[in-house]
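Please, structure for the following, as tokens.
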Amino acid sequence: MIHGHVTAWALALILFIVALILLSNGKTKGAKMVQMILRVLYLIIVATGVGLLFKLTNINAMYILKAVVGLWIIGLFEVILSRVANKRRTSVFWFQFVIAWALVLYLGFVKLPMSIFYPV
């Protein structure tokens, strides 16, 4: 389950970058298709994340914080892509994205005991 979760968010990050490149090159039709695939990946990320939470025997506040920050990142993906498509400022959202991404990676790989190397 962990490997599926990590694979899903890694693919989502790659597709997010692809969508940004397509939008910056003016290829809105291709960007919309990538965004639709990205939205399916959001569902997979959320489903595997919820599955991982329910496999835990001792859920503490740090796991809940990681889940909330993960949802925050998904929201930032959507906001950044929509603002780039409408040619609006995104600097505040990029700042939030960097902070949220660093926090979720820290919580997932350093702070919490259940990481990609933890057998579940």
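The two ends are 8 Å apart (CA to CA). Residues 2-111 form one domain.
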